[in-house]
Amino acid sequence: MNVVIIEDEEFAARRLECMIREIDPHIQIVAKLESVVGSVEWFKSHDVPDLIFMDIHLKDNLSFAIFNSISIACPIVFTTATDELSTRAFKLKKIDFLLKPIVQTELVKMIEKYRNLPESECRIMDASFFVDIVNKPKKEE
Q: What are 106-129's pLDDT values in tens digits?
């Protein structure tokens, strides 16, 4: 299984990589990317991985902006600290996410879920898929 980690916090990226290697040392971390721009460039010149762990808030934009430039046809697990609107939207769209700090047992479940996912069940993620999440107005308190 080839995995890409998109995370702008170095500690969080290293922690996730270590947790993945602890779960299964045969999983290959093929890239650790920290920005929208860097991610778009990487995906334009590399094969699509089997699974992506993607932080929502990157240093140069929300990770959803990646999909303005490219479409990705592999499973994506979004990671977020406490973005309540996003997690609610993800539940409605049936998008997988892990809350930070990531818990080992939850990560194991996520990797197992995608380890044998048939390619026919991988949906293409592009900008149109996330329009209602990104443009959702914030709820007034």
A: 999 999 988 877 777 766 666 666
State the pairing for strand pair 28-33/51-55. unpaired
Give the domain ranges of the chain. 2-131
Handedness of CA 12, 84, 61, 37 (dihedral sign): positive
**2-131, which class in CATH?**
alpha beta
Instruction: Give dist(CA 69, CA 46) in Å, integer.
Output: 15
Report how far residue 128's alpha carbon sits from residue 64's, in angstroms, rounded to the nearest whole number: 10
Alpha-carbon span 90 to 97, nearest angstrom: 7
For residues 54 and 134, give the distance between their C-alpha atoms in angstroms, rounded to a whole number: 15
Peptide bond into 137 cis (omega under 30): no
CB-based contacts of 35, cutoff 8 Å, min separation 6? 8, 58, 59, 60, 61
Please tell me the pTM assigned to this model: 0.83
